[in-house]
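Teaching assistant here, posting this on the class forum so everyone can see the example we discussed in section. The complex has two components, and the goal was to see what a joint structure prediction looks like when all of them are supplied at once.
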Amino acid sequence: DGGITQSPKYLFRKEGQNVTLSCEQNLNHDAMYWYRQDPGQGLRLIYYSQIVNDFQKGDIAEGYSVSREKKESFPLTVTSAQKNPTAFYLCASRGSGTASEAFFGQGTRLTVV
Amino acid sequence: QKEVEQNSGPLSVPEGAIASLNCTYSDRVSQSFFWYRQYSGKSPELIMSIYSNGDKEDGRFTAQLNKASQYVSLLIRDSQPSDSATYLCAVPMFSGGYNKLIFGAGTRLAVHP
């Protein structure tokens, strides 16, 4: 089955902890994206990557970090510097052409306890 | 000015009516446009893509694009209660040689019996 897998589905973080959200795709897509969604809001871009070992900050990168060591994987770390991390996190992948469509994983819901 | 703008709604229509969802974008050179549907608590799913001026029909859905006005819309004919969801407009935009995918805030559609 081709697709994007995010894990875990639910994640709880204590104050001051770093946590890492996993995103894996087997669609052979070059581009991968991380978005944050707050209740009743749209998707805000955190980081994106067009090729392995290269990534760019989106609109709300502060308090987050990523890596892209493999084409299939684009993990997101929510650091303790992110003061309000409770949100729904969505990972997407997309082919390299401008007409390419993006596909999403099932999301990770992160809650600070 | 936001890069991709949508009316947040809610847009309420009776069952069987036509729902009209609108989106404007800021980047004049954008070439591709996507509509996603997102049910509450779920990840977005692609429903339509459009690349050329004019209309594109797929079942009960019609996407309309006017690049001169930087405007893209989605019409849903014979609206059903199952169409009740948030509809997100997405536009790939170039920034510093990189291609990022920007979403609007979404329009919440409510179809009532």
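For the discussion questions: Chain A touches chain B through 24 residues (CB under 8 Å). The two ends of chain A are 35 Å apart (CA to CA). Think about how each of these relates to the inputs above.
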